[in-house]
Amino acid sequence: MKKILLSLVTVILIATSVFADEIKFTASAPNVVELGEQFRLTYSLNNKGKNIKIPALDGFRVLMGPSTSSSMSTQIINGKVTSSSSYSYTYVLLAEKEGKFDIKPATITVDGETKTSNSLTIEVVKVNKTQQDTGSKQSQNSASSQKITEDNLFVKVKLDRNNVYMGEHVVATIKVYTRLTIAGFGDSKFPSFDGFLSQEVPTPGQISLERENINGTIYNTGIIRKLILFPQHTGEITIDPFELEVIIRQRQANKRSGFFDDFFDNYQDIRVPRKSKPIKIRVKDFPSNKPASFDGAVGNFTLSTTIDKDSVKANDAITMRVKVEGNGNLKLIKPLEFNFPADFEVYDPKTSQNLKSSEAGMSGSTTFEYLIIPRHAGEYEIPSVDFSFFDPKAKIFRTRSTKKFTVKVAKGDGDNSGTIISSFTKEKVKFLGKDIRYIKTNDFTPQLKGEVFFGTTNFYLAYIIPFFLFVLAFVFNRKRIKENADTAKLKNKRANRVAMKRLKMASASLKAKQKDQFYDEILKAIWGYTSDKLNLPLENLNKENISEILLSKGVELELKDEFLSILDTCEFARYSPSAGSSEMDELYQTSMDTITKLEKNIK
């Protein structure tokens, strides 16, 4: 009976969780398709529905559909039941006309209610003649690999605009464009964005490719990184190229044809370096009618000011908050400067920020908190202060003002000074009491006490010892400058220390189970040590020439093989599905031993 009752409760909980979920009905399809291409239009629903109705599909022909599929999963974790279900309705369409077509929302009935999907826009492009010829050649000889060129694989840094005001945000998107099969990515070098304040825009950790039309040719594109840039000076600013190593997977042609060649394909991964073109952006200065209260804020903001109390006793603290809220360069806004009464002790303002970065720019708020302590009784006024900013959309300056506050300060406990008039400042009373002096009428005769210091041994030592110490410090400093000037020798001396510091960072990543960061730190430690120890730039070191370099420096053959084995293990592990902690521990110890041996072997 208990088992039946428990099963019934479980079913009720599952049903409750299913119906409690918000019903979502979404449509998905490629953004760009070729004229005459077949593709799928899919509607997804997280609950069971019926009577799906799709809109008129102008420019497309329905070849098949809807084909339906469903799935359901249930989890019970610590007594909490969670359940999810999904239903999909798939149509196969044929693109018959060229142009951009809007697909209106579809409808479906769920529990007697009508749910509406999102709308879609699909672009149909005519097949590029070069692209069509290339495709026909590949189909005629499927075993041969397609030639890798700048036309079918490239990277690009895209800006949403190239002409802005100083401090106005620019969205920079770093993308890869390909018509080949990508197996992964290798090393990358991002632009330094000199002249900008950069802020990362959150993007998915896994790069997903989407179709995009570039001058009549369809590419698979993926976003590598997205940033918001705030230019910090006027004029023309150049953004450096972005460099990326792309791993392309191609089918390898077999020279000899065997019986099993039709059943097994032979693929190879090719590392292809790509480099984007530098781009320029023109940054304009502000209009000449800048108000005196303008301090570089750009965007659209609101200003609010609050004070926690306006009636206190002397020596009690008051907190005043100034909040700037909106969209713009909030990170660069400076605290407002108030003209507080002279009898107020004011501490440096505390700044707190709640910011969010997106393609629309940086939004949120910056709050300045002022701690104020009135020291004397009286009635005081905190005057209003102007805050000006430049609105780039309207191309004008706007000014907001803080509130004016009146603070009543009563006499504090144990304060015998009485009430102080606020208009009478400390500056006017600080010399009081200095005009009265006692007059001495008796005779005054100065007398010497003790021995005379001048001409004694200690007198001369007081000059000789500092001079001697100065000479020693001068010689030591000259020696240190000479050693620092020898860059190669300096790098050689600190090579082992820098490598061990990298290995400590790798150990921390190992404990935190951050696999990718662990292998990156191991590689940086190995390559960095070799570069510093051999006094060779990193770009001149690679797996092809490192063997000869190490052997020429007197490194033993076995130690050289251990060095190359570490490099191979790290590069393989970065693209392998997983690696155990024991293998990572062993690699960490091997790397430390190898660097120690290299320190003794390199001549």
From TrEMBL:
Lineage: superkingdom: Bacteria
PANTHER family tied to this protein: BATD (PTHR40940:SF2), PROTEIN BATD-RELATED (PTHR40940)
Provenance organism: Labilibaculum euxinus
Membrane-spanning segments: 459-476
Keywords, alphabetical: Membrane, Signal, Transmembrane, Transmembrane helix
Name recorded for this polypeptide: Protein BatD
Keyword set includes Membrane: yes
Keyword Transmembrane helix applies: yes
A matching Pfam family: BatD
Database matches in InterPro entries: BatD
Signal peptide from the UniProt entry: 1-20
